[in-house]
Model the fold of this input.
Amino acid sequence: MLKELVLKNRTYRRFYQEEKVSKEELLELIDLARISSSAANLQPLKYILSTENAKNEKVFSNIKWAGYLKDWNGPEEGEKPSAYIVMLSDSDISKNIFWDHGIAVQSILLGATEKGYGGCQFGAIDKVGLKRELEIPEKYEIVMVIALGKPKEVVVLEELDKNRGIKYYRDEDGVHHVPKRKLEDLLLDI
Done:
């Protein structure tokens, strides 16, 4: 059952924008992150939630979409995410978040997948611009942005083709393909 959830938990970049994610559902996802492991139990991560169109636009305008898809600037109107989570680090608690953000985002996205949503995590962010737009106090550092919504695209995993490489791509039908290495290619000793 967990493997099925992990297989469904893909990176989605196009959504049914009119399908809303509620604030209550976002709170449930943040609660999954809250109860997940945290290095030294410091719990330095904080979150800003966005479900309203005006706030969503502020977030959308400060993130960069799909670096490997050079001819695509991101989802069009009607395909944008309907919610965002801005993950922050609280420097008053710790200057080092260790691996907490990875554990937290995985918990959030698995929870979203279980609810029938999909997401995309962003590190390519205009952090200065987003901090200004959302009026984020100085003590918080933006770690990542998570876009959420009802997926409007098909994502297929495929075996890595050494000629094509690791870059994801879309075929002529708009299906998003993600190459993955074979299990045996990850193991140094069996």
